[in-house]
Design a protein that fits this description.
Strand content: 15-25%
Distance between the termini: 24 Å
Strand order of the largest sheet: 8-7-6-9-10
Radius of gyration: 21 Å
């Protein structure tokens, strides 16, 4: 069994008033080890302690966890050119124009219908990325931390961004280069050769819950981001209804890979301590009920 270590202070606010919640283990792959979930009384962060030591973390990421297969869809690959496709393209053009992307002349029906398109079709118009899809910046540079096979970056590149990625997987980097000609640095963010304030937009989608030192990570992001740049973060919400319903069987706990479980308060505390101003924070529904019930029934079997 890989060695573990105790975490004696909150990784976000450094508080030492820590409440033990329950014991857990790797319910996804059933790899050996027992881990505790504890909560900081000051900022509300829930974190794993004891946790695997740093050199043992790779043990809990088997190859099937993130296989980084070639993309199933690339831009323009499935465009039929029919009436529905043209309508879809027109709606997308209208929505993206509102975000500053120049895609040609906007017709009257596109301008008139834009409020409706933004309210109803915003997610589809941004290729399913929704709020993650940034406003356009001329000559802008974008970084995706934990970029996988580079699919998200490929959409930004298609729309005029200069893009770079960071990922721990050599396989993911190879796929990104082969299919999208996107350069991905293999390794940790602190090791990447990026200069100060060189990015206009940085994406961290379902990455922060995996890191051991969140303050150091966000401080490094702050160094890389321009003063007027945008950081997008997406993490599971420990104060969600799904977590309340699932309890210790909540699939998004995913110990010991998810070392941290954020609430809106703990995430906001981390960002403000590292010099960020939170522009907007939202929560969306992710139906993990079937996973939660499967894990619960497996344990009772």
């Amino acid at each position: 069994v890989p060695r573990t270590e105790e975490v004696e202070q909150c990784p976000v606010c450094l508080g030492r008033q820590i409440e033990f919640l329950f014991w857990t283990f790797d319910r996804l792959y059933r790899l050996p080890g027992r881990f505790g979930e504890s909560r900081c009384a000051d900022c509300g962060l829930v974190f794993v302690t004891p946790r695997p030591v740093e050199e043992a973390l790779g043990y809990y990421y088997p190859e099937e966890y993130a296989p980084h297969q070639p993309p199933a869809y690339t831009l323009g690959g499935n465009d039929t050119g029919g009436l529905v496709s043209k309508l879809r393209t027109g709606i997308r053009q209208s929505v993206l124009d509102e975000l500053g992307y120049q895609g040609g002349k906007i017709a009257f029906w596109q301008r008139a219908g834009r409020p409706f398109f933004n309210n109803v079709f915003f997610s589809q118009a941004t290729y399913g990325w929704g709020d993650r899809f940034p406003r356009f910046v001329k000559d802008g540079r974008a970084l995706d931390i934990g970029c996988g096979n580079g699919t998200f970056l490929s959409y930004l590149k298609h729309h005029g961004w200069e893009v770079q990625g960071v990922d721990m997987s050599r396989q993911a980097a190879n796929v990104a280069k082969e299919y999208f000609d996107i350069d991905v640095f293999v390794g940790g963010l602190a090791e990447a050769p990026f200069s100060d304030q060189c990015f206009d937009y940085i994406n961290m989608s379902h990455v922060l819950e995996h890191v051991r030192e969140p303050r150091q990570t966000i401080e490094e992001v702050r160094r890389l981001l321009k003063d007027d740049g945008i950081l997008y973060i997406e993490v599971p919400n420990y104060e969600s209804f799904g977590c309340e319903s699932g309890g210790e069987f909540w699939f998004a706990l995913d110990a010991p890979r998810h070392l941290l479980s954020f609430s809106p308060n703990s995430l906001g505390t981390l960002l403000s301590q590292c010099g960020f101003r939170t522009v907007r924070m939202t929560s969306k529904v992710a139906d993990l009920f079937a996973w939660d019930e499967t894990l619960r029934k497996e344990e009772k079997a």
